[in-house]
Amino acid sequence: MNPDVLDLARLQFALTAGGHFLFVALTLGLATVVAVVQTVATIGRKPLHARMVRYWGQLYVINYAVGIVTGIVMEFQFGMSWSGLTHYAGNVFGASLAVETIVAFFVESTFLGLWIFGWHRFNRWVHLAMIWIVTLTAYLSAYWILVSNGFLNNPVGYRTEGGKLVLDDPIAVLTNPSALLAFGHILAGALLTAGFFVAGVSAYHLFRRSPEWEFFGRSLRIGVFLSFPALMVTAVFGGVQLAALSTLQPMKSAVFSQKTAEIAQIQADMVARFGPGDYVPSEAWTRGGGLVMLLCFALMMYFTFAGVILACFKTVVFRFRLWHLALMAAVPLPYLAMISGWVFREAGRQPWVVYGLLKTEDAVSDLSPGAMRASLIVFTTLFGLLVVLNAWLLARHARRGPVDSGLGHDDRDGRENPADSLPATSY
Fold first, then answer.
1. 3-state SS class at 210
2. CA separation for the pair 31, 191 (Å, rounded)
3. What gap in Å lies between CA 21 and CA 14, rounded to an integer?
4. In Å, how far from its chain's centre is CA 163?
5. 166 in helix, strand or coil?
6. Cβ–Cβ under 8 Å, residues 81 and 367
7. What is the CB neighbour count within 10 angstroms for residue 48?
8. pTM, whole model, 2 decimals?
9. Is the peptide bond preceding residue 351 cis, with omega within 30 degrees of 0?
């Protein structure tokens, strides 16, 4: 295999998967926030809560719509750039990817469409059920993706037939500790991302002395009080995963801990088991990604702990402008932590694409450097444009604040909050 093709294929997948991950983190977390707030609004029937559902729901829909395009584009790469992987292990990890596609593109998208266009058309409890279905199917979608990724990191439940992997024990694949621990880590990290996002946007409006001070004061508290417990749960799952590495991927654990003697011993064992080769992943990416992740965690821990205390005082929430600036500046921290954690997880698996079974160099498609370079340019450009578009749309809508149009607005009579006067069967 041409090393240029391998490096370009790895770079392309890293950029596109990382770009897609940025959308997923906010989508999962913000969907949960919207579902919980709509539950409170449906039960309490308070106009402020209903307006919060529409405002944060609009931001969620924007992020979801652009993010799902990046997911479609990213999956093209399995057939285009990694045919060796799909040929060798597609019978095992491909099934979970197929289920994820059904969940995300049919169930989740269908109910999201019903939620978007069903305002004032469905019973308010039915409408509430729809956003919870969307949220739960988003969780399921993330789970199925991590089942596939978990198999690549810790292959279980398979047997070999004709030089290919065949599914042998579905339960083992579905309960793979590499997948389950990552699933809990990702969900908590997504809630953390949403908490920082909600708090940061709310702080922007409070900093500018928005007339919607009550709206954004409550939203800021939601973001702050969500962030701290989400960070703690994220840290717990992350710590368990680090402890499990010594068993699941001892080389990654040794590189991260800089245990030179252990690295040499594992390298020698792998050479004896798999033949000549370099089985030590890049220390710069593996250890570097892990350290950046831990640094972000430390910063967010102090930040969220202080935030919980400050948010208990109304005067601070509405008037402490320095804190507002800090909340705005902190929005990228969860993104940086999650991306660096993903780099640590994936780079530390090298040189394996299926750990202990298939090397990355054997998984890449037989392409010319020119074709791979052209693919990289097209994919990277497209993803870059989508990221910029999403950021612009989110910023544009976030700056506008809650308005009398958009998601959930009733055009029949111009009322901004139809829940005030419509029958109890409407939301």
1. coil
2. 9
3. 10
4. 34
5. strand
6. yes
7. 15
8. 0.90
9. yes
Least confident of 129-133, 243-247, 296-300, 378-382: 378-382
Q: Confirm if 84 and 365 have CB atoms less than 8 A apart.
A: yes
Q: pLDDT tens, 162-192? A: 889 999 999 999 999 999 999 999 999 999 9
**3-state SS class at 170:** helix
- Helix residue ranges per DSSP H, 165-319: 170-174, 177-207, 213-248, 250-257, 260-274, 283-310, 314-319
The structure tokens 């370079």 sit at: 373
Q: What's the first-to-final CA gap in the chain, in angstroms?
A: 59
Q: Report which of residues 412 and 363 the model is more confident about.
A: 363
Nearest to 5 by CA among 80, 115, 107, 111: 80
Question: Which of 389, 340, 398, 400 is closest to 67 using CA atoms?
Answer: 389
Phi, psi of 282, deg, nearest 5: -60, 120
Q: What is the pLDDT of residues 103-128, one digit of tens each?
A: 777 888 889 999 999 888 888 999 99
Nearest to 34 by CA among 16, 49, 12: 49
- Please count the other Cβ atoms lying within 10 Å of the Cβ belonging to residue 360: 19
Q: What share of the chain is helix, strand, coil (3-state, %, to 5)?
A: 80, 5, 20
The predicted-structure confidence for 68-93, as pLDDT tens digits, reads as follows 877 777 777 777 788 888 889 988 98
pLDDT in tens, 325-377: 999 999 999 999 999 999 999 999 999 999 999 999 999 888 888 888 888 88
